[in-house]
Amino acid sequence: MRRIGVFICHCGVNIAGTVDVKRVVEEVIEHPSVAYSVDHQYVCSDPGQSLVKEAILEQRLEGVVIAACSPAMHEVTFRRAVAAGGLNPYLCEIANIREQCSWVHKDREAATNKAVALIRTSVEKLRYNEELVPLTFSLTKRALIIGGGIAGLTASLDIAKAGYPVVLLERKPFLGGKMRNLSGLYLNFDAAPDLLNSRIEEVENHPLITVITEAEVEEVMGFVGNFTVRIGKSNTSQLINVGAIVVTTGYDLYPLEKLGEYGGGRYPDVIDSLSFEELLSPYGPTGGEIRRPSDGAIPKEVVFIQCAGSRDVGTHMPYCSNICCMYTAKQAILYKRQVPEGQAYVFYIDIRSGGKGYEEFVGRAMEDYNVLYLRGKVSKVFEEGGKVFVWGVDTLTGKVLEVRADLVVLATAAVPSYGAEELAKRLRVATDEHGFLREAHPKLRPVESLTSGIFLAGAAHFPKDIPETIAQASAAAAKVISLFSQPNIVGEPIVAYVEGEVCSGCGLCVEVCPYDAREMHLWKALATVNEALCQGCGACVVACPNKASSVRNFTTEQVLAMVEAVI
Fold this sequence. Notes:
Helix content: 25-40%
Number of strands: 28
Shape: globular
Structural class: alpha/beta
Strand content: 15-25%
Radius of gyration: 29 Å
Number of helices: 14
Largest sheet: 5 strands, parallel
């Protein structure tokens, strides 16, 4: 029987405020396999980790249970500490007595009893743990970037400058994404095309970057470090091998035709924000002059309607599109610069200008350019007598408003780019309820997907402006560079395995595996496991009628022992 040490964390008052930690220490030591039990204010701290390492040596421990927060927070930290103490890192178990105990209970007695029970189950599991060794796989040190906007360009350059080859894939005939359509940038009105063109030129001339335009991903096979990607272009396809993938597919705008209440798709002088950018651009259809589409006249009164399709739970998109408040202020300023005698109105719900200098920029629009901001939703937009009538309410004054505009600009919702959801399925990358790519963890892993080796950046993840997009793209590139700096891929050994003498070759486990980590043996009636793809979820264990499938360190015997510890 293993000599097991239990280390119970106070986590300040996060645990100790609800759980009687001292009593837990006393009760846990009564378990026949527990040779040592102690508490500490913060076991994850350097002194706490030193306590674990010293106890392993002094108490001759053969396994460690850490009773603390979720293993998602510090499991890697504690495994390293246990390894530094001389034990196999997989002889360490985490009993979650914070998220699953102290944070969800108010009754101190009940929470304490539950903490003791959770620790006992971890002790029972640990008794049967194997000493595992991390898996190693070869690594292809080449990256695929999907999407040639500013995020894709940035990620490509960062990775290439680190010395690794890159394939940049773009489905359109040209690079640049939505930034190509912008006339200028807030806060300093730099010309977007000039900045973008210099970045594109640098990418196209870099010896380690291969650009493929008018092409799309058709199929993705393999796993982190060893992806095989089929790329389709002009009725032909090619296979490329890459070690990592960064998805930077950007965004599209919510269709004007779906915004009938604002006249979208019905009136030529109701346009979206990117169409207005084209009017501002010297490369646009009017050569940079703001002229309304219906008759080419210079508009003297322009109404900007924010949250058109955003923050509309009942009818359109429920989320804030994040970028609209700032680009609307920019567009209103540029309009006033070109038509100083004109009047710009902005209907808004709230002004969300979170960023360095952003609040001051919006203030400039109001104070220096006399842009009239009206707090309230627009109720109706209709055309009559060559004017576009905008009806709304100013919620600050309670007055009903009517503006007879020459041009209406809708700040429409930003939505996932066309085809992004289908691409996510091919990549086996999760999306949120709106179709944006889902990160592995919003705080700890914001540029990683749940599929190892696939990273995300820019508006493919969620609407964001250019500085934030560039920062996230560089962060994703840094993750790729970190991956490529290793000699090989190190994988988690807690994966499924098959007992060949019990397996009947029915194939049920192959059908249920969500990671495509199962396949049938070429000539035997036997299921096999691709350990590089397996994530240890246990779906195969549930599906197997013969109990031939198991997950290492999560065997049926261990689970039953854990259950018996609490009944």
